[in-house]
Amino acid sequence: MYQNNKVLISKHSKSFYWASFFLSQKIFLQFSTVYNFCRTLDDIADNNHPTHIKKKKFKEFKNFFYKDKSTYIVNDFKKLIQEYDIKQKIISDLFDGIESDLKKKVIFTKKKDLYLYSYRVAGTVGLIISKILKIKDKNVFKGAIKLGIAMQLTNIARDVMEDSKNNRFYISKSFNSIKKTIHIAENLYDESFWAIKHIPLRQRFAILVARKIYRQIGYEILKRKNMKNYIVSGKIYVSNMMKLYLTIKSIIDLMKLFFIKPHDLSFAENKLFKFINLHERI
Length: 282
Prior knowledge:
Layout: H1 2-12, H2 14-20, H3 25-46, H4 51-65, H5 72-83, H6 88-99, E1 106-107, H7 111-132, H8 138-158, H9 160-165, E2 168-169, H10 175-193, H11 201-222, H12 227-233, H13 240-256, H14 266-272, H15 278-281
Parallel strand pairs: 1-2
Helix pairs in contact: 1-2, 1-3, 2-11, 3-5, 3-7, 6-7, 7-8, 8-10, 8-11, 10-11, 11-13
C-alpha cells in the first residue's frame, strides 16, 4: 500500500511529493491515505464520462464509504478517521464539494461560493491533516483551513483554461480575475503562516516547503502578465531548480516561526467561518 500511495502522489502532485521527503514515514503513509481517497473522488469528477455516469460512480463510491467493507482505499481512510476522531461532518463537506462539480456546467458568480467550494474540496483536507497531527487549538484549525483554501485558489487560478473546457467557471476567464484570485490566496498564505508553528517540528518543515512551492505557482502565473501569455504557457509548474531554492528558503521561514505572533483572523471570521460551524467539525 505504501508504494502504491507513493506512485499516486509522485504522478499527480509533484509539489506535495517534493515536500513529502521531509515527512516521517508514518506521517507520509497517513497523508498518502488521505491523498488516495481525495484523488479517487477527484478522478470521478474530472474524467470525461457523461454527467449521469459521473453521478452514478460518485453515488457508488459514497455508498462504499458507508458500508462496513469496501476497497482498500476507502477502508484505509476509514481506519484513519476512527483513529484520529475525524468528524463525519468534515467528510460530508468533502463529498458535497465533489458533488457540486458533477453538473453539466459549474459557474460561480459570488465570492462566498468560491470560498465555500474551496473549503469543501481543500480546507477539509487541511482539517483532516491537522487532526492527524494532533492539533487541539481552534485557531490553528482555522489556519489549516486557510492554507488549504489558498492552495485550492492557486489551482483554480492555474487551471482556468482546462476548467473552462470542462464547463467549470469558478472564476471568470480573464487575467484580471486570475490576478484577483491569486491576491486572495496570497492573503491566506500569509494568514495561515503562524499556525504552522504549532505543527510537530518534523512535519512542520514539510508543510512550509509545500506552502512555499504552491505559493510560487501563483508568482509564476503573474509573470505571464496577460491572458495571451497565460494561454500559451499551458499548465504552469515550478521547476525542480526553483523547488530546491524554495526548500532552502523555507529554512528561513522555519526560523521565523519561533518569533511570529497569531495573525489577524478577519478573513476567516468575515468571509468563511460564518458559513460553517467549526465546532461541529473539530
